[in-house]
Amino acid sequence: MSKTGASQTENVRVEYYDWTKLLPTLTSFAFGLAVAMVLARASMTEWLREPFEPYPGGEPAPRTGMPNLSLWLDLLCWVPALLVLFRRCFDRTYVLRFTIAHALLLAMAVLAVISTAWSADRFAAAVTGFHFLSAGVLCWSASQLVRSWLRLRFVAAATAALLGVYALQGVYYRTVDYPDNVRMVEKDKDRILRERGWTEDSFAWKQFYRKVAGGEMIGFGSSPNTYAAMLVTFGLIAAALAAQRWRDGDEPAWPAAIALPLLPAAYVLVLTNSKTGYLTPIIGAVLIWIGWTCGAKLAARRRTAYFAGAGAVLLGAVALIGHGLYHGSLIIDSLTFRWKYWVGSARVFGEHLLAGVGWNNFGYYYLAHRLPDASEEIKDPHNLFVKAAVELGILGLLLAIGFVARLMWEITRPIQPPAPPAKAPPTKITLIFLVAAGAIAVNALTSIDFGQESAYVMVELLKRLLYFGIIVLLLAAGTIRSTAEVRLDDRPAPLLLVGCVVALAMFLVHNLIDFSMWETGPMFVFALLAGALIGVRGETLAGRRKHNLAVVAATGVTLTGWLVAMIGFVLPAAQAESGAQRGDELIRTNQVRSAIGAYRAAIETTPISNADYVYRLARAMMLQQDDPKQVDAWLSQAIAANPMDVGYRTLRATFWLHQPPESQPRQQIAADYRRVIELDPNNLQARLSFAGALESWGDTEAAKKEYQAALLVNDRYHPDEPKRLSAQEIERIKSKL
Predict the structure, then answer these.
(1) Contact 397/388 with Cβ under 8 angstroms?
(2) For residue 612, with 0-12 CB atoms within 10 Å meaning exposed, 13-18 middle and 19 or more buried, which class applies?
(3) What is the pTM of this model?
(4) Does an H or E element contain 10, and which?
(5) Which residues pair with 10 in a beta bridge?
(6) Ramachandran angles phi, psi of 223, nearest 5°
(7) CA distance 502 to 232
(8) Rounded-to-10 torsion of CA 501, 505, 508, 510
(9) 604: which residues sit within 8 A by CB, 6+ positions away?
(10) Tell me: the pLDDT tens digits for 715-731?
């Protein structure tokens, strides 16, 4: 630009900083954040509701991973996708992929969220549906962020790090926590029975003591089978990563460090007593060997190989169903129990064919259809496809089948990431420390109850310090090129790629008889792995038309949806949950009247109807011995909010039976018990309680029918069922008859 004056001409040069050079930093940060969030959530336990009810004077239990925190973690899992979209808006050379597998997964997640509208437990559907949707968004962002060998190695190393954390958790539990728990339960047995309202003969106490005394291995989930599924998935990837490093001729210390957690992980896997967990590592190892040695031949006949595999799976499923229909059982006891779950589930599906019962609402409807000799009150049908069918209807089933089929097609494409450029700048290893530190910081802030006593907090912080060391060590062992070249490894890793595909397939096999995928941590691990494999197997989009306006519109819609979810759902839901938790603590400290106010505030704040908050308020009023009619009014509101929950009606009936006989609303009590029995025909205790009430009212003929029905239900129970009546109880009932 020139500037002309009277006597001279001055040339001025204006330089502009090319800020677009910062755009790759956005996606680098997005990748690190995605991996850190998965590491954090996979190594913590998340709950939908408080597992134990509070009692005045009760011991304060650590409260972690509740919706007031987990929903914020969901929002953080959207950030990588927003950063990817933001980069694409300003960088036309950055290619986005949206595959059919992405579309099917996100459609199923959106359907899960929408099912809140017709769910009995709307809060459960909304929260778990949002978890699912957030995992789907993370899966899509992982497909954009993982397109190179370097990042595939990093994701694999992260799962190897989780194997180390899971192995440490299992060994620590077995050697430290388990003996302490047994001693604590034996010492405080009377207090626990008193606080929980249990007796030594009650089913709840027997189940609780059996789990504690048996040292049930659940890790960071709610089931030993989930623990086993994750150990197998992580173990297969870790073994493939170690084999890849060994095959590359790297220094022996690197593969040895990666393989080190395999031995303690195998020990913990045995303790889970998961028969599927014993079998899938063997199948996985065989498939990795076949995929590696016959990969070229399979790629040349890919379509034939894919449909042959799909046909074998379909044939096996048909054979299994045929065996179950003909014999009424499957090969082993654990599978027979699953078959009984699925028979009951099929009946639920038949009644709710089109829309399903709503996401995460299976347990309420299953009770009416469970078989008498399968009396366990399960909350999940233990099968990926059965869950989709029962909870989301025929459309959900089709989406689930289509997603799994399309996912396996996309991640088995004979496509590999391009080799790195010869003069590519080395990637610094600071990413290892940043990801590990971010993961542990998020984990500590959301999974440690800092309001507990200092000894507890110190132990938990020391655990997180150990997790940090394991994550750094195994990320380094899996991603650093060598001691001579301290940079992230970007060499091709075809053996590792085969191992990741097989590990994901084995995880899906576990979910044919389990519910691992729907626990929050495992679900996000699956999303990261599936997204990464779609990304590295993706077809090139070079030369195709880029729809810039569509990307800008998608970015605007996604950002708007994220903000709406934050302001309209997450923020008020988190506030309501925090208020309800304050109410629980106030009850424990004998401030029941203040607790009632906290529960009222939670009910008024929650954006989604939550019958549990209303139930807690009614229960607090019972502890406060308030006017029975007011208690009844709130229990009635809880029943109206979730009419399928038998616990609310049972509590209302029991509450009135403890009132003076002249004030008891007998018709309402009888109606409640009849509805409970209608919803849960095999509920032995409900039938006995109803019979006792009828007997106390002098209606001996009706009482006799209920006692006879109770004996009939008892006879149908499995011989080993803990809920069966004792010989003394049976004789007492027969004497009444």
Answers:
(1) yes
(2) buried
(3) 0.93
(4) strand 9-11
(5) 3
(6) -150, 140
(7) 11
(8) -120
(9) none
(10) 888 777 777 888 888 88
